[in-house]
Amino acid sequence: MKSALALVAFVSLSALVVASPHDIVHQHRDAAPTNSADTCSGWVQKFRGKATFTASNNSSLDYCKQAPACGQYFTSGFTAAVNELAFGAQLNNGPGDACGRCFYVKPQWDPSEPDFKLPPGLGITVMVNNLCTNSSGSTPQTNLCGQTVSDRLNSFDKYMHFELCTPSGAWDAFYPGKQPRTMVGKYQEVPCTGSTTAWKGGQGTIFAEDSCMAPVNAPRWPKTACGNKGCPPP
To answer: What span is annotated as the signal peptide, if there is one (predicted)?
Structure first.
């Protein structure tokens, strides 16, 4: 009789031990999403590197202040959209982990005038508040914002793209005296406040229930703030 009870206890304990690791991993993923590898791995979110830059083709300042992707209005400041693979959410999936992060961006090369020597001291700080979509078809936007998990580089061999919001004054400060065009340069994530490269602007009203903007003291990538939503473009 004692042997039978011991066998039952051993079997029950074995089943519990086998089941627990799977349950723990599943619960951890649901409770604390990260940028680490999981079933939706593939986001490319690096705190510094090379990037391409363009200007938005919208002439309305409201476009900069009311960009919908992160769910919050802005009152002032240089803002930018980034490509889906860096933004952390595909179109209509809500805010991604890039929302509210600040980046110091600096132009280094003008492909349309390759011999032109850029003046010293160029560079601005932008806050991400929008998504540059991975559009279908062959368009300039797709060539620059269309990075995917299977093809991580755009037409200039860069994994990161910033679309500077023209009406906010971002382009004129980024590349003074030059019409909007594709530029190549570098970027680095910086604190949004309390530094020489701090972002100068203001956030406004929250208008979406799932809105999210990274706190000003958020740790830089690959640490998370808002977190990524869903899977990256395959």
So the answer is: 1-19
- pTM, two decimals, is 0.80
Sequence-distant (≥ 6) Cβ neighbours of residue 37 within 8 angstroms: none
User: Which 3-state string (H, E, C) describes the chain?
Assistant: CHHHHHHHHHHHHHHHHHHHHHHHHHHHHHHCCCCCCCCCCCCCCCCEEEEEEEECCCCCHHHHHCCCCCCEEEEECCEEEEEHHHHCCCCCCCCCCCCCCEEEEEEEECCCCCCCCCCCCCCEEEEEEEEECCCCCCCHHHHHHCCCCCCCCCCCCCCCEEEECHHHCHHHHHCCCCCCCCEEEEEEEECCCCCCCCCCCEEEEECCCCCCCCCCCCCCCCCCCCCCCCCCCC
Lookup: tokens for 41: 């791995």
Whole-angstrom distance, CA of residue 169 vs CA of residue 142: 24
| Residue 164 identity (one-letter amino acid) | L
Helix or strand or coil: residue 55? strand
Provide the CA 136 distance to its chain's centre, in angstroms. 20
Which residue type is seen at 93? N
Residues 171-221 have pLDDT tens digits of 999 999 999 999 999 999 999 999 899 999 998 888 888 899 999 889 999
Average pLDDT over all residues of the chain:
81
Rg (CA), the chain: 22
